[in-house]
Amino acid sequence: MIPYWMSRTQLLLGDEPIEKLMGSHVLVVGLGGVGGICAEMIARSGVGKMTIVDADTVDLSNGNRQIPALHSTAGKLKAEVMAARLRDINPELDLTVLSTYMEKEKAAELVQSAPYDFIVDCIDTLSPKVMLLKACVEAGIPVVSSLGAGGKLDPSLVTIAPLEESKECTLARYVRKRLHKHGIYKGITVVYSPEKIDPEKVIVTEKAYPKKSLIGTIPYMPAIFGCQCASVVIRALIQPEIEA
């Protein structure tokens, strides 16, 4: 039975697509500015089973852009904060919570740990990001990857495209180069923006560990990236014959 809280989505999509969503399992890796809103949109769309992964804790500097970041949640695990929120959205959600760092050596193990219908990559560190994408392609599991949302202001430029067609995105270039070394050239959908970043808005600091730098952000851009990623997942699950 389709629950009442999904009645507006049911009105738009109809019963069969909703039932497909309720029977689907989606993995979201990374619950920051992009991943948090993406996970929430996937849950609100009615996906019945989810696995969420993030080892980080809430820092007040996250408060301008991350769903789990509130003054009341500072210092708490993002995955646990998001888990409580997702279960409050859908009490029937079958949710697996992994408060662990996405180590590149464990990417294949994670991808193969369950029969996922779709995987979302919202990792912002290059090596584990690439290894997760590699594992998805090798396992034949559909994946959408968020590229760089930081340093961007114009939402009209945010684009969904195959990775090989992305342009003017530094992270995309690095990801492509690493994947090419593994013989992977196709099979990954990305959300990216070709908007150029002002280098003065980026600072190199040890506080960014495990990354090397911090970049300025505006609240709405990571959210838009996250919603676009969620749209790829939901449209693919209800219309598998149509490319997202």
Automatic annotation (TrEMBL):
CDD domains: YgdL_like. It holds the Pfam family ThiF. It comes from the Bacteria. Residues 12-240 form the THIF-type NAD/FAD binding fold domain. Transmembrane segments: none annotated. This is tRNA threonylcarbamoyladenosine dehydratase. The lineage of its organism: Bacteria, Pseudomonadati, Bacteroidota, Chitinophagia, Chitinophagales.
